[in-house]
Amino acid sequence: MTAPTPYIFFPGTCREALEHYRAVFGGELELHTYGEFGRTDGPADDIAHGDLLGPVSLQGADAGADEDPVALTGVMLSLLGRSDAATLHRWFDALAEGGTIVSPLERRSWGDWDGIVVDAHGLRWLIGYRGA
């Protein structure tokens, strides 16, 4: 199934953010700087394009002069049922480090498990799975 991959403009923290997500989710990470791409619209060591490919795929860059950094409202990145329960709990806990738990990952009245966390980079995640 084809799905969109979020492309996130970070406020100068792209390398740190994508390396953090690789540590959380695993996968392969490629980072390319403005200097590598011959771009002069940002610092040479800023990330012009980053690509995390794995169980969770994300792309991003450090926001250029004419780009706004990420500020999500009305949006969550959903990982509902995207892995086994133990993995989803591990991801939730790792994303919560340095972030804010909005709603704990716990069993809900309808029998399924879910929780919401805003990570240290400002992304809001909905993580859950069917009751077990």
From TrEMBL:
Region forming the signal peptide: none
Gene3D superfamilies per the UniProt record, alphabetical: 2,3-Dihydroxybiphenyl 1,2-Dioxygenase, domain 1
InterPro entries: Glyas_Bleomycin-R_OHBP_Dase, Glyas_Fos-R_dOase_dom, PhnB-like
CDD domains in UniProt: PhnB_like
Annotated ranges, domain Glyoxalase/fosfomycin resistance/dioxygenase: 12-125
One Pfam family, short name: Glyoxalase
Lineage: superkingdom: Bacteria
Protein name per its UniProtKB record: VOC family protein
Organism listed in the record: Microbacterium barkeri
